[in-house]
Amino acid sequence: MSGYTLHSEAFNDLDEIRAYIAEDDPDAADRVITAIFDRIRSLVGLPYQGYRRPNLTSRPLRFALVYEYVIAYAPETTPLRVLAVYHGRRSPRVMAAPLRGRE
Question: Do residues 36 and 4 lie in contact, with contact meaning Cβ atoms separated by under 8 Å?
Fold first, then answer.
């Protein structure tokens, strides 16, 4: 058992991230995706280590940074539920939109 699950749209987020980076450097794309999954696995044991973003959501979600990518997850769920992975330089309004529709 992995200790975490990914929302179906989070899989899409990761596919888009990989494809975007791979256009310039496929090896870098693999490194970034590996680092994201390593970080997700590290959150399983200590799910509240991420930070809150009340400007994005009133839900009790936490956020963790990997390079310039943000992992949005529900720390109280078992297994840990990853809702989204997106670029951290997006506007807060753009970041908040997918979180509203992902349970």
Answer: no
